[in-house]
Amino acid sequence: IAQALVRAKTRGVQVRLALDRENLDDPVMAKWAGSVQDADISVSWQETDAFLHSKFVIVDRRVVWMGSWNATINDTYRNNNNLLRITVPEIVANYEAEFAQMATGDFGSKKSAQTPSPLVQLSSGQIENYFSPQDGVREQIVKRITQAKQSVAFLAFSFTSDEIGDAMIARQAAGVAVRGVFERRNAEGTGSEYARLRKGNVDVLIDGNCYTMHHKVIIIDQRFVITGSYNFTGRAEDINDENLVIIDSPEIAALYMEEFERVYQKAQNPQACG
C-alpha cells in the first residue's frame, strides 16, 4: 500500500496522510512511513495523548473505504476485520471534513463538531455517520440498542463501556436475543463487560481465532449495522480519533450476520493454536 501511494504521487495524484506518531515505534511501519515521506507525500502526525485510531481512505472525492481494518499484514491475512466501500456523496464529504481537520494538525479534542451530514436518507434506508470525540458516538449506539425489538449480535475487540453493556443487558431482560463474541485477550481484561454480560444472561463467547478478532460491529434486528474503528470503550468515546457508521439495510445486515455466525461458530469450536 505504501508503494501504491508512492506510485500515485509519481503519477501526479495529490496524496496526503494523517498518521499516529506511535506507529514509528514499529520498525516495519517506520520503514514504510519513511518511504512515503521520502516521496514528498504530505503527512500530518498525531502527537498528543489521544490515539489516531480511525482507519479510512478517500479516493478522488468519490469513494471512502472505512471499517476496522488497519493497513498491516496481520489485519489483512490473520485477523478478523471488515471494510466498507461507500460512494454516497454526503458521507464522502463527511470524511473529507474530518480529514481536513487532521491535515491542519487538529486531532482528538482539538477537532470541532462539524460533521456536515450525520444522517443521510437513501432511496432505501439511511446512513448515519459520526466521529469521535466530537459527535457523542456512544449515545447513538445506546439509542439503537435500546430500540432493538428482536435481536442484537455483536463482535467486539474491546468492550469496556458500562453504558453499552447496560443497554444490552436491558434488552436481553426484555426478551430480545442478545449474542456476542469478545476478542480473547481482552475478554477478561480490566473493565471488560464480558463477565457483566454473562451475569446478565447474555449469550457471549470468547473468540476462536488464534490471532485477533478485530471487529467492532453490532447488528440489530438483522437490519441495522453499526461498524467502524470505534471500540466500545471510554477512550474511543472521549479521547481517540474514531469514525463510525450506522447503516439501515437488511441486505448489508445479512452480510454482516454471515460473518457474525462464522465467528460465533468458530468461538464454539476454537481452532488449535500452536
Total domains: 1
* Major sheet description: 8 strands, mixed
Task: Give the averaged pLDDT, no decimals.
Answer: 96
Overall geometry = globular
Number of helices: 10
Classify the fold: give the CATH topology.
Endonuclease, Chain A
- Backbone structural class: alpha+beta
Low-confidence stretches: none
Largest sheet strand order: 6-7-13-12-11-8-9-10
Number of DSSP-assigned strands: 13
List the helices and strands in order. Answer: HEHEEEHEHEEHEHEHHEEEHEH
Rg, rounded, reads 19 Å
User: CA-to-CA gap between the ends?
Assistant: 30 Å
The percentage helix is: 25-40%
CATH C-level label: Alpha Beta
Which architecture per CATH?
2-Layer Sandwich
CATH superfamily: Endonuclease Chain A
How would you characterize the overall build of this protein?
This protein has one domain: Endonuclease Chain A (Endonuclease, Chain A, 2-Layer Sandwich), CATH 3.30.870. Helix content is 35%, strand content 24%. It has helices spanning 2-10, 27-38, 73-77, 89-103, 137-146, 162-173, 184-187, 194-199, 234-238, 250-268; strands at 16-20, 42-46, 56-59, 63-67, 83-86, 119-121, 126-132, 151-156, 177-182, 203-206, 216-220, 224-228, 242-248. It has an 8-stranded mixed beta sheet with strand order 6-7-13-12-11-8-9-10, sandwiched between helices. The longest helix has 19 residues, at 250-268. The radius of gyration is 19 Å and the shape is globular. The model has no long low-confidence stretch (mean pLDDT 96).
